[in-house]
Amino acid sequence: MHPFPAGIRVQEWDMVSSYFKRFGDILKQTFEWISSQSIDIESHSQSKEPFSQTFKRDAQQFFQEIHIYDWKTQLQWYDVYKEAIHLLGLSSPQIKIPNSVYILTGAMNGLFSMDTFEDNEYSACEVNAWALLLNAVKLSKTLLDNIFMYKESWKQNIAVLWKHPNVSTLVIECLYRVIHPTVSLTLHKEYERLLVDFIQQLFYSFDSLSLIREYNYPIPEMSHYVVLLTEKDCKLFFSILYAVRLIHYQGSSSISENEKNTTNKASNELYYVTGIIKTLQNIADWSVLSSSSHRLSGKNSLSLGRIREILDDNTILKMNKVEYSDLNSYIPSELTEAQETTFQEDIVSNIYYPFWDADKRSARSLSLMTLLALCHASQSIENPESHEVIRIFLLQIVDVLRENEFKQEFYRVAEGQVRNRIEKWRKMKTFKRCLIPRPILTLEEEGFVKPYIDQLPNRKHAYVIMKALEIIDKPIPNKNRKSQAIYLTP
After folding, report:
1. Bridge-partner residues for 97, per DSSP?
2. pTM for the complete prediction?
3. Which of 12, 290, 380, 431 could lock 400 by a disulfide, CB 3.0 to 4.6 Å apart?
């Protein structure tokens, strides 16, 4: 596969693509407008042909002649064509595609027909055929939906894609050929069509959920976090694994040699890595991942009743209760000796805040594994600017893990406690509860991510991230007992 001519810059192609999309949107809006008109607004004019008639005739002629263009150009117009079929009385489009792609997909419910001519470049090689299909997918969202809608008709071929991202070399190689700027001019907005839309459609096309959860990961500890993922986050993880693997994938030998010979290796790497990272940043609202439905303030202002209501849910209580083995690790000794003694007597129940539920725990696991995977992938990056792109996203994930908004909320509430309540709590000899701030990382989580943060080529970046996660240079606990806990009495 050949890259675009050197004279065409990506900015220019992006502009052309934007104008192309805008023109398509205008056509769609015009189709909708004409369809909504019960009476032609120009029908009163006998001297002129009504606008709707002129537009329909010209559009019909345009779409009837579109078959003279190559199959990729036809696919550029496919989404608009589908919108126009009913209004213009057009027949369903049939696109002539290369033999190798037709052999993979078949007629796709009449959408495709076989082109008997095919360049030598697109031989019957399986990788070339799949790469051509992915090139088609990036051009049309409707086509993407169709190929999975009719997956049963070509199940025997698509089944070769039903593998875990860590071992799915065919998909990785084809994605690389379609999006790497050395071999293709794919815009960043098209990265999302492939790495999110296509990969997530692939996720739902087979039992990928079991595959993701039961896979034997090279990092044994990862299995613990994978099983915590909800189905929604498993789907995101599926895309993330493909995207991160692409960062350090070097391509086939012939492609790699082509990249070595280019004079723009650094800029190509920067464009490539930036496109992948942008896609990951947009794959989910990472700030929402750090939120919780169980808050002390906001719409549900703090009250003992509100806290009791949350903690009456045994699932939430169990998930957030501090185990005795965690006591010395996470509870400041300044909470008084009496508390530690009564905890041992099972009178005090220490509970972490922010409160987590299954969704929150899943989102946190996803964040931890994404952090780890990006740190590992960074080792293959050479361009400092590419490292900077990854660093910014890593800090975004770190911010998710720190839960600063909730910690600040906790300390505001704790500082506002009446001293009499604290004294009353201390003197109680019956069962009582105490909310304490959750550590940024548990000891288990620290052990999970620290070795991979250490692998970051830029030592300064590694230090900043570990400091932000309080893996190193841990802050000295505040000795003010009042601000360290929220004391709950019956």
Report:
1. 114
2. 0.86
3. 290
